[in-house]
């Protein structure tokens, strides 16, 4: 399975980089994983609705340029479907079973994802109704993908 994790903005925090590097290394035994960062737009503190849409649209164009037509896209969005770790594992297993070997998880910038990215997504996933820094979500996502592969292989993993 080929998995892309596409995020807006460059990861700066060392502690997050270390965690993501660790889980990416562990995931290498199960799948090919590619971490892609697209440039974020600078948003003014008091951006208007029109300015926010314009920023999300520009970031969205960059995200969409990284997706292949046959990729199954899962957008991380607060309004997405919430799953348990076991349900995510089952979902990934079903995608592989039905020939969806290219999967992209997409995490937007601080303003979220553009309408075009959400339309391109095959499904949306939420980790919580709470808002998290998008860079922290990258670490949580990579860990959950790793956990999903462990669950699907029947390998031990802490609960």
Automatic annotation (TrEMBL):
Location relative to the cell: Cytoplasm
SUPFAM superfamilies attached to this UniProt entry: alpha/beta knot (SSF75217)
Pfam families the record matches: SPOUT_MTase
Highest taxon of the lineage: Bacteria
Keywords from the named record: Cytoplasm, Methyltransferase, rRNA processing, S-adenosyl-L-methionine, Transferase
GO BP of this protein: methylation
E.C. number(s) listed in UniProt: 2.1.1.177
Gene Ontology molecular function: any one: methyltransferase activity
Binding site for S-adenosyl-L-methionine: 76, 108, 127-132
Record's catalysed reaction(s): pseudouridine(1915) in 23S rRNA + S-adenosyl-L-methionine = N(3)-methylpseudouridine(1915) in 23S rRNA + S-adenosyl-L-homocysteine + H(+)
NCBIfam families membership: PRK00103.1-3, tRNA_RlmH_YbeA
Described function: Specifically methylates the pseudouridine at position 1915 (m3Psi1915) in 23S rRNA.
Record text on subunit structure and interactions: Homodimer.
Family, similarity comment: Belongs to the RNA methyltransferase RlmH family.
Name of the protein in question: Ribosomal RNA large subunit methyltransferase H
Organism: Halalkalibacter kiskunsagensis
């Amino acid at each position: 399975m080929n998995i892309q994790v596409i995020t807006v903005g460059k990861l700066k925090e060392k502690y997050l980089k270390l965690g993501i590097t660790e889980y990416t290394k562990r995931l290498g035994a199960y799948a090919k994983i590619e971490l892609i960062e697209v440039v974020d737009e600078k948003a003014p503190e008091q951006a208007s609705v029109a300015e926010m849409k314009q920023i999300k649209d520009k970031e969205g164009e960059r995200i969409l340029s990284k997706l292949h037509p046959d990729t199954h896209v899962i957008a991380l969005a607060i309004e997405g479907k919430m799953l348990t770790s076991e349900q995510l594992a089952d979902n990934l297993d079903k995608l592989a079973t039905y020939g969806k070997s290219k999967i992209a998880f997409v995490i937007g910038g601080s303003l979220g994802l553009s309408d075009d990215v959400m339309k391109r997504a095959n499904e949306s996933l939420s980790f919580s109704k709470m808002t998290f820094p998008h860079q922290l979500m990258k670490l949580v996502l990579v860990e959950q993908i790793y956990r999903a592969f462990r669950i699907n292989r029947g390998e031990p993993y802490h609960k």
